[in-house]
Amino acid sequence: MRVLGIDPGLTRCGVGVVDVAPDRSAVLVDVVVLRSPADLATPGRLARISDGLEAIVEEHRPHAVALERVFARSDVSTIMGTAQISGVAMLIAERRALPVALHTPSEVKAAITGYGRADKKQVGAMVARILGLDAVPKPADAADALALAICHAWRTGGVAGAAVADAAAGRGAAPAGGLTPAQRAWLAAERAASVSGAARRLKE
Amino acid sequence: MRVLGIDPGLTRCGVGVVDVAPDRSAVLVDVVVLRSPADLATPGRLARISDGLEAIVEEHRPHAVALERVFARSDVSTIMGTAQISGVAMLIAERRALPVALHTPSEVKAAITGYGRADKKQVGAMVARILGLDAVPKPADAADALALAICHAWRTGGVAGAAVADAAAGRGAAPAGGLTPAQRAWLAAERAASVSGAARRLKE
Question: Principal place where this protein is found (chains A, B) (predicted)?
Fold first, then answer.
């Protein structure tokens, strides 16, 4: 499945696209950090980032969108920009009938490194290793977006329509019955891989 | 000038349209509260509200959009929905080249009632009086959206292109030189009305 991961932000918005196979292997498709100048008014900044996100969706046609779930932080103005971009990103996905999933930073860290409190450096190093890259994607927003996309594919078992629980919507976390042959193959591969410990993390 | 006021929210989004004349008199054009069901996932809720906002913009063709400036409140999930809707609303305005202005709740209260800590009842009563309505618009989100629209027209002196300071963008609050005849007429009327005390509030 192809997942678009978005680390939302008004100044820097990390965007990563990965293809993840049933055996959990992942390939980098694209990674970019969209930016908007701080001296532009907020509506113009939102439009810049929105244009960039739409272009990437059109170019790469992902099966699902994974966004960082935003929590309150110390800097209120940062939260606002982040929440505004996440709203714009969700709307772009909804208009194309793409499933959207939200993952917390600790969920992403746990999925990628096995440790929910991993630092940015550890996440970046694991992302590079998973994707077979020579260098860690920079800036951190780029690595975070890729980590989100990989995390999403791994947590959903690669079933594009099965968005991980949006807690606000009260959705279930697991794909329901009536799986397609491809989905069954994915789940079988998932179970076979459970000795690696990665599958255990899926059940956290 | 015709102003669209938006009190952003995911569950209830107040929307008010008013026409404000150079003599500061205001006429109700439309008022509605857009809603989205809490059991829908966030992207779908954003799309519902976005559809409603776009329909109102298309129908009434406002000259400017006034939004409530969102601050951190106790309930983080409410802030997120509010910020997401405000992002979507700003983008809708930007796509149509409409100026967007943000006003804080206390700026709106001060402009409408002369008192920055007025309660919702006082704001509603003044909105009804300004617009010559028999009853206070309900729910409070509707009255708040109308108050925002009136506040914006009054604070900008009715000059559609002169958005009140978006603090983040560092814009100036007052219209610059090179006024059109209509703008000069507005300012003259504004000065003539200063005995009422309303113009003093404009200079706060």
Answer: cytoplasm
